[in-house]
Write a structure and sequence with these properties.
It contains five helices and 39 strands. It has 540 residues and is mainly beta. Helix 1 runs antiparallel to helix 2. The longest helix is centred in the first third of the chain and has 16 residues, at 2-17. The N and C termini lie far apart (88 Å).
Length: 540
């Protein structure tokens, strides 16, 4: 009865206050807090209140996992206890099959539905590697995946396993994206819950790979832990994954935490730093050899990755939530140029968990992010923009907006000396210490088809020339200047000067420019010279 009366009271309150839309505060240079939207009906209030009052701590539990207890607020949603005999349960597991190295120079062929390589007996799954010639490979093994049978965004994933031993073994418990929303590997991410190599028998590793942080670049982020009996005893390998945060565990003990820090990712796209806001699926496999597995000891076979159980838990964030998130704090500028602004803020606090942040540009929704930074692109130079940030939790509750005004950089004028090394983008070139009269740096190692790009403001239409300050030891070269057209504005021959630091001026033929902002490309149609600076001059 109390619950019904409370709902009626709140519904009447919602009716009295009516609907409210987007509200706007006076624009200032200071960060401010305001309410950007509100609940629009009594139904919204009733739904949220009823959800809070009727939270069921077992609401997510599936029938097959009813025998498992919650772990705190984590509810069991997917499990395989391997309490049967034969092939792995096809309602849980599919197969990746084939050879060819799998991108790592691996030596095995992964078979499909072969009891020699993947079978369940005596309460455990055995993924077994054998030394045998099969379809061009010297070894066979199995790679099991939960794709489309088990795909999760956030969760606590536990795998109790005993690892194989011997040089050349490379077992892994890991995850890949189901939908590849940000592109192919590594841009959509990889989550390594546990990796182990037989050549390093006492260590296990937990690692993340992303577009900006991966082993191809040598920038992957990971942790290792000594587990001296991992090849003879079962241990629970685990990850807890929540928005913008992960932890890796062995036997319930955390040995590494992953997160996002905007200060370390100023010039890194959000998805390149942290693509883990999409669903992933689980993979169990035993590789042989390869770039990390190394040299194989053929006396060790057969070897098995033995798995006692796989359990996946999730939280009912929305069901537990009872309060709006607090507003973000310390909203400010992280980076800007003439056409983009990157903002960042301290994460908002919620009674359960913030799901994401809404980013508004001049009161229009620009996008959302699970991270505490966002870059707005394709902006106009020398223009002031207002940014609002709203924290949203899993129940749909929204914080008051916090806003800040930021002005993009001015575009450099075409008039005056422009240092070659001040390019906005380039391909193929590098800088070096310059021995010309102005010192500083010059652009060097300019080969054919290398280029630099510069965004510049032309204040006045008219006829112009461009003077290049160049040096060329013995070959000379040729420069094509491009504006907004696919055809060059002018082509200039670069003479031999007798040395890489022997400088001279070369003046182009005349060309016409219209007032406005353009991106100019200085391209070496024939390479073999250095460039110190250049200068546009209007022909009177």
């Amino acid at each position: 009865m109390k619950k019904i009366l409370l709902i009626i009271s709140l519904s009447l309150f919602a009716f009295l206050v009516g609907c409210q839309g987007l509200t706007t505060a006076n624009t200032t240079n200071d960060t401010t807090t305001e309410e950007i939207t509100t609940l629009t009906s009594s139904e919204d209030i009733t739904t949220q209140l009823t959800t809070a009052l009727t939270y069921d701590p077992r609401s997510l539990v599936t029938e097959e996992c009813e025998h498992l207890d919650n772990i705190g607020d984590w509810q069991p949603v997917w499990c395989d206890e391997f309490d049967y005999t034969g092939l792995p349960d096809s309602s849980h597991w599919l197969y990746d099959s084939g050879g060819g190295g799998w991108g790592n120079g691996e030596l095995q062929y992964y078979t499909r539905e072969d009891l020699d390589n993947a079978y369940v007996s005596d309460g455990t799954l055995k993924i077994t590697a054998l030394q045998e010639n099969y379809l061009g490979s010297d070894y066979t093994s199995a790679r099991l995946i939960t794709k489309y049978n088990g795909d999760w965004l956030y969760g606590k994933i536990q795998v109790r396993a005993k690892l194989p031993s011997g040089d050349g073994t490379w077992p892994a418990i890991w995850m890949l994206p189901t939908d590849w929303a940000y592109g192919g590997w590594p841009y959509s991410g990889e989550i390594d819950i546990m990796e182990h190599v037989g050549a390093d028998p006492y260590k296990v590793y937990g690692t993340l790979h992303t577009g900006a942080y991966n082993h191809n670049l040598g920038t992957q982020i990971g942790y290792s832990k000594t587990v001296s009996d991992c090849e003879s005893e079962f241990h629970v390998y685990e990850i807890e994954w929540e928005p913008a945060r992960m932890q890796v565990f062995v036997d319930g003990v955390s040995y590494g935490t992953f997160g996002y820090n905007p200060l370390y990712n100023v010039n890194v796209d959000n998805s390149d730093a942290w693509p883990f806001d999409q669903r992933f699926h689980l993979i169990l496999n035993l590789a042989i050899g390869g770039s990390w597995g190394g040299t194989v000891d053929n006396d060790i076979f057969p070897q098995s990755l033995e798995v006692d159980y796989v359990r996946v838990y999730q939280k009912d964030y929305a069901g537990m939530d009872q309060e709006d998130p607090e507003p973000v704090t310390d909203l400010g500028l992280l980076d800007k140029d003439q056409d983009s602004i990157k903002i960042f803020w301290d994460k908002a606090i919620d009674d359960i968990m913030v799901k994401e942040y809404e980013i508004y540009l001049d009161n229009v929704l620009l996008g959302t992010t699970t991270l505490n930074a966002y870059r707005a692109e394709d902006l106009l130079p020398s223009t002031t923009y207002r940014f609002d940030v709203v924290a949203v939790d899993f129940a749909g509750n929204r914080s008051d907006a916090v806003n800040v005004n930021i002005t993009t950089e001015e575009v450099r004028s075409i008039l005056g000396v422009i240092q070659a090394e001040s390019y906005d983008s380039m391909s193929g070139v590098a800088t070096q210490t310059c021995e010309d009269t102005d010192g500083g740096l010059n652009v060097g190692w300019i080969d054919t088809n290398d280029y630099m790009e510069y965004t510049l403001n032309i204040p006045e239409s008219g006829t112009y020339t461009i003077t290049y300050r160049i040096a060329s030891e013995s070959t000379g070269g040729e420069i094509k200047l491009y504006g907004s057209s696919l055809l060059p504005l002018t082509t200039t021959t670069v003479p031999v000067t007798g040395g890489w630091q022997v400088w001279t001026d070369v003046v182009s033929a005349e060309f016409n420019l219209s007032a406005g902002i353009y991106t100019f490309k200085v391209k070496a149609s024939i390479g073999g010279f250095n460039l110190n600076y250049f200068e546009f001059k209007k022909v009177e």
